[in-house]
Amino acid sequence: MSKKPLIPFSEPPYLAGLPSPYYSSSHLKWQKACRAFLDENFNQYVLDWEREEKVPPEVFKKFAAANMLIPTLPAPLPVEWLKRLGVHDILGAVKVEDWDYLHTAIYTDEISRSGFSGASASLTTGMSYGVPPIIKFGSKDLQERFLPDLLLGKKRICIAITEPDAGSDVANIQTTAAKTDDGKYYIVNGAKKWITNGIWSSYATMAVRTSGPGPAGLSLLIVPLLDHPGVSMRPLKCSGQISSGTTYIELDDVRVPVSNLIGQEGMGMKYIMTNFNHERLIIAVGVTRGARVALAAAFEYCLKREAFGKTLMEQPVVRHRLAKCGAMLESQWAWIEQFVYQMTKLSKADADVELGGLTALAKVQAGIVLDECARCAVLLFGGNGYTKTGQGEIVERIYRDVPGARIPGGSEDVLLDLSIRQLVKNYKYKTKMLERPRGSSRL
Length: 443
Known about the structure:
alpha+beta, 4-stranded mixed beta sheet, 4-stranded antiparallel beta sheet, 13 helices
């Protein structure tokens, strides 16, 4: 018996039976295992968690026990550390040493299949963005103290960059970390705002000012949070990503050991910028799946909803709307696949240079595509799309998630400018490298 045909735009082409040059047998095996786990333990419950505005704590524990938080780390995975901790594969489908960015993208796409980004962010944000700086730049002592519990999900961490008065303007961060007279502690004062899953986190990888103004004064510090003296946290109510645990953190004379410094003082801006590349790529993948969910829901609705004596799908103007959004969606996904494939072929250093500006663009374009697809879906659902319950609940909620795609990770206008500045910088550098050395007589 043949399978039921897929709703158009509901799956990436490689899962809709079309050939692709990107995915190996390893990737396809991982996709099946990943979807089976997430369908059983996650996606079917996400709408209920959004309604309840929180993800039950046991879900994080279940993901940690299955090593299903690890896939959100940048590729390649920290193989030496994972094997030392007894993690040799993920779900028995992929050995940790065989993991690449296409595996990461598959995980991100699959965990976003509900269409809502809040629940997945509540589980993965700390591992995805808070842990990598420790792996990349932390001292051996720092890694020994923190990585075992963090990689195995025994403790939670968040990334704390944004402040009430410093969002995309990272160089303007005001939270201070001043050393005590004996040089053993930093005393941290300030506030962090819009910190995803902060409310549940034992630690934060936090941007602090350890010296003068500007980017050269920034450092990264692991700051204890839960039950730590001087730290107070409260949840923030946002219009979307409701279950993500968005948090306001206040720091009042918080004592942090100097040994909690990540890397070197004054290098925080560099560490943050390289960390952003992974964050923006992950956002782009997940947001593109959100757009897919919204558009597919609208397509399916239009096949059955009747108006003026015929289905909406029989109305040319409706087909026109779907066509425009479909073209945007599949163009964006094709770019994402190409982008991720390039990541599998470039070193981290080369990718940061060659793809840094384009990563910003990919994240921006994903937000624009989500906006178009979600708006299209709401309009085609009509009153149902404007209602928080019933047939249009999914698209109504996705539409409220749109600002959460276009603002975090670098707001849209800032990233558009950053992308071009980075491309110009690369062009000028490569041009300079082609110049003939002065005084040379060589033809």
